[in-house]
Design brief:
This protein is of the alpha/beta class. Helix content is about 55%, strand content about 10%. Strands 2-1-3-4-5 form a 5-stranded parallel beta sheet, sandwiched between helices. β1, α1 and β2 (about 25-35) form a beta-alpha-beta unit.
């Protein structure tokens, strides 16, 4: 039997999940938790095969709970079941250590399938998210760092590389100094660089400026 603990702050949701999982002969809801602290206490005291965790929890949110479980019980699989769309959270959550991510709009059978896959050592994401990840990988691999910038960010990059100050750039494109500084910070982050000199060297190397 796959011993599952359900962590969700809504009793009616937990009751519904128990009813769904009761239909699977190999899955047993061994415990429930209504908040993060209760979940961590039970995980420390008892042995479970899988945690079914909501991201929005009172007191301690799901991300912090997941991080703590991965510190204390790194081999315990955590499956996220949440209202938040995959596009907003899934990749971040999977990188932290979740073994699966499902939205509460998913079909009951998909939840059962996901639990079995995660229990077997796999990862579970929906076909739509898998497609998005594959597309992102395909499109990012061949892109140069500056090709990932927005049009405005690219404009600011070229201006910086041409030796213009933030104030000069702000005046020329009719934006505030603060806004241009924000664009500069984003450019440095996206291109994994630290200084204007790095940006200038890159721009010259790739013939973005003369």
């Amino acid at each position: 039997m796959i011993k599952v603990i359900i962590a969700d702050d809504h009793p009616i949701v937990r009751a519904g999940l128990k009813q769904i999982l009761a239909e699977a002969s190999d899955i047993m809801v061994a415990a429930e938790a209504g908040n993060g602290h209760e979940l961590l206490e039970k995980v420390r005291r008892e042995v479970f095969d899988l945690v079914l965790l909501d991201l929005k929890m009172p007191g301690m949110d799901g991300v912090d709970i997941l991080k703590q479980i991965k510190i204390e019980k790194p081999k315990l699989p955590v499956m996220i079941l949440t209202i938040y769309p995959e596009s907003n959270y899934a990749l971040r959550i999977l990188r932290i250590g979740a073994s699966g991510y499902l939205t509460k709009e998913s079909a009951p059978q998909e939840l059962i399938t996901a639990i079995r896959k995660v229990y077997g050592g796999g990862k579970y994401i929906s076909p739509s998210l898998a497609e998005k990840i594959a597309f992102a990988l395909d499109t990012d691999v061949d892109k140069l760092p500056h090709e990932k910038l927005s049009d405005r960010e690219y404009q600011v990059l070229c201006a910086i590389a041409s030796g213009r100050t933030v104030s000069e750039i702000a005046e020329s494109i009719h934006l505030s100094v603060k806004t241009v500084s924000t664009y500069r910070a984003r450019i440095l982050e996206k291109m994994s660089m630290k200084t204007n000199a790095d940006l200038t060297h890159y721009a010259l190397q790739n013939q973005l400026v003369e």
